[in-house]
Amino acid sequence: MKTNNKPSRFNYDAATVEEAKEYILCRAKQLLRHYYRLNSIREYEWGISAYFIKGNKTFQSIYITEPFRGKGVFTQNITHTILTSDECDIESYLIKKNIDYQIEKLRMFREYQLIEDYYADQKAQRSGVYLMNHIDEGLYIMNKINASETAKKAYCLHPLIQSDEALSENYALLSDIDVQVVIALTEYRSVANEYLSKRQIERIDDIRLSPLKEVNDMLIADKIQNKKDFELYHKGIHPRSAELDLYFNNWLRRLNVNDDFYRECADYME
Questions:
Q1: What is the β-pairing status of strands 37-44 and 47-54?
Q2: Could you read off the pLDDT of 248-270 as tens digits, one per residue?
Q3: For domain 110-269, which CATH number applies: 3.40.30, 3.30.70, 1.10.3210, 2.40.128?
Q4: Pairing relationship of beta strands 101-104 and 81-85 according to DSSP bridges
Q5: pLDDT by residue (tens digit) across 52-102?
Q6: What is the distance between the alpha carbons of residues 189 and 208, in angstroms, rounded to a whole number?
Q7: Which of 20, 214, 262, 266 could form a disulfide with 48 if both were Cys (CB 3.0 to 4.6 A apart)?
Q8: CA nearest neighbour of 162 among 126, 184, 188
Q9: How far apart are CA 155 and CA 112, in angstroms?
């Protein structure tokens, strides 16, 4: 595996099984948008064997902790087609050993890399989940609704300018971003910030949507993902739980997201 010297949620040289498990769980979030769902994790003295389901096929990802590398553990524990990414840098080894594998590209465009570098290994204060989960899970939703590449790129970048403080600090990072992405990004900021949870509305139509489909698709991904996390970590506990519950429900009604589709997405991401 590659060694990454930047702060990252990925520990390429995990020394413990718990660290290896954390790595796999983070990869599972990235793999959602390729429709792989983590089915089970098995822990061993040497590391982790994880099993992913896509369609009717099972794939296996193996993480050997640093103390056990180079001892033949990998090949001894293969039970299914190996699922790996271009970042793991083991494709040549798999080919050499004639091991059946599936490789996926997880950083598909520069905008994803920008937000990943920006978030690094940061976690949400209340829930303790990685901030990048919001991006990875949102991209899964955007694939389900057939959002455009422009919308996906803008969604990746939206935390960089969401608040006034973030805009002031980060606007220079957008200097060489495609103009269509910047348009979608700034329009998203305008629409999303117009209806926040502390604003009371009299009817659903008081929530303004965008004339741009890209922006409304970004809103669908954002509100489904945020509501899922709210229900997992905050509902009934947060001091403004009732207001937040109403807020997310209002957004999803305005965006014509029905309960069945929300539940399908939320269950898949958990």
A1: antiparallel
A2: 999 999 999 999 999 999 999 98
A3: 1.10.3210
A4: parallel
A5: 999 999 999 999 999 999 999 999 999 999 999 998 999 999 999 999 999
A6: 12
A7: 20
A8: 188
A9: 9
